[in-house]
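$ ./design --mode recover --in tokens.txt
reading tokens...
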């Protein structure tokens, strides 16, 4: 937005408002058209009044849009809304969750730097570090997520960054974010937290001491499985580096996808409440069923980190993973017997999904890497949607009968 237009009362005064108001209104700057919904700007470039105006914009001497690879009003609205909801100074949107992780490492680390990653991360995250980032001289080691002593012991003089998912995919493991942040900061390192499974509606890692929070916006931020995107948030100083990488390398979020995510954020809290309520009921039910060997869900009293989850999250999330009898064959029979739930690896959708992590999301990992991450052949992941809970139980009962 240039300095030539001042919206005045057309924009909402958001000083001191609550989370749900930020989710609906933060980041919107109305145009002279006075639109009520957020405007969509599907443009690659912008027109300048004079050559001098163009030069000043490109040099950063005056604010305003330059090129949509790194500045777009719709994308900026999404970034400002996420920053407000996460309690960050600034957010930077990216083309996907994986490009968000890439942007963090490429902008904040150099060849020779050491990065500590939890073992309990998404399979593609491990592949990114192992197959690509190591190739360019980034040193990487893996630590059991909940083992705070293990994190402290794994530090090297050149450790620059710690990267974790909490809760993790798909086992709902957690780390004490406040304690891990203290360990990192005592040693001069940064802590980045993938908050995809909780969203800012359930957990705000920056307020717990983390330096960076990131999301695959493809998941719950969208909420209906329509668009791909990611976002990184933190201090303005750190995000300036991320913006620089994005401006040059170009893993940019499209304006249309940003607009979809803005719409998704408006209903985030109420969707997460419904997701979590059904997931907790389903986890408790699964724990009582014959043929189920173990249920992984932090909302269960049987979960070893239940108290930690209750302390640093406002609810327990919507992903329920469980191990069935019969190994891989049993898991596949269970999945194939369902008739309502979608067999797909995406999550965060209004539609419940079911997947076999060992042969899908974590299928490209070696058997040893899967073992280290706790991904067994008998494991099934269900991302609970918004259907009638009775219908979900009935569909999973078909799976149980197939064991």
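writing sequence...
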């Amino acid at each position: 937005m240039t300095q030539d237009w001042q919206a005045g009362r057309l924009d909402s005064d958001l000083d001191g408002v609550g989370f749900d108001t930020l989710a609906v209104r933060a980041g919107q700057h109305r145009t002279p058209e006075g639109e009520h919904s957020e405007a969509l700007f599907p443009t690659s470039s912008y027109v300048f009044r004079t050559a001098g105006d163009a030069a000043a914009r490109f040099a950063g001497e005056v604010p305003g849009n330059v090129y949509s690879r790194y500045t777009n009003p719709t994308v900026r609205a999404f970034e400002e809304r996420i920053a407000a909801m996460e309690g960050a100074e600034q957010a930077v949107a990216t083309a996907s969750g994986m490009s968000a992780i890439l942007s963090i490492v490429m902008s904040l680390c150099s060849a020779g730097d050491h990065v500590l990653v939890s073992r309990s991360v998404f399979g593609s995250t491990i592949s990114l570090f192992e197959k690509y980032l190591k190739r360019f001289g980034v040193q990487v080691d893996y630590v059991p997520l909940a083992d705070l002593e293990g994190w402290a012991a794994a530090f090297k003089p050149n450790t620059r960054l710690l990267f974790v998912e909490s809760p993790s995919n798909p086992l709902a493991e957690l780390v004490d974010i406040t304690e891990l942040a203290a360990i990192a900061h005592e040693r001069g390192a940064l802590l980045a937290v993938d908050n995809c499974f909780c969203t800012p509606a359930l957990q705000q890692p920056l307020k717990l001491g983390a330096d960076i929070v990131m999301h695959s916006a493809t998941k719950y931020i969208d909420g209906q499985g329509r668009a791909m995107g990611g976002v990184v948030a933190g201090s303005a100083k750190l995000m300036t580096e991320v913006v620089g990488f994005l401006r040059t390398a170009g893993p940019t979020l499209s304006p249309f996808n940003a607009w979809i995510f803005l719409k998704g954020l408006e209903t985030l809290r109420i969707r997460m409440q419904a997701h979590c309520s059904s997931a907790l009921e389903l986890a408790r039910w699964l724990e009582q069923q014959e043929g189920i060997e173990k249920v992984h869900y932090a909302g269960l009293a049987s979960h070893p980190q239940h108290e930690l989850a209750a302390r640093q999250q406002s609810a327990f999330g919507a992903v329920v993973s469980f191990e069935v009898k019969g190994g891989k064959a049993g898991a596949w029979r269970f999945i194939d017997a369902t008739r309502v739930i979608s067999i797909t690896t995406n999550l965060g959708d209004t539609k419940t999904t079911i997947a076999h992590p060992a042969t899908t999301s974590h299928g490209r990992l070696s058997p040893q890497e899967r073992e280290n991450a706790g991904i067994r052949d008998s494991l099934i992941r269900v991302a609970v949607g918004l259907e009638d809970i009775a219908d979900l139980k009935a569909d999973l009962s078909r799976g149980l009968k197939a064991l």
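exit 0
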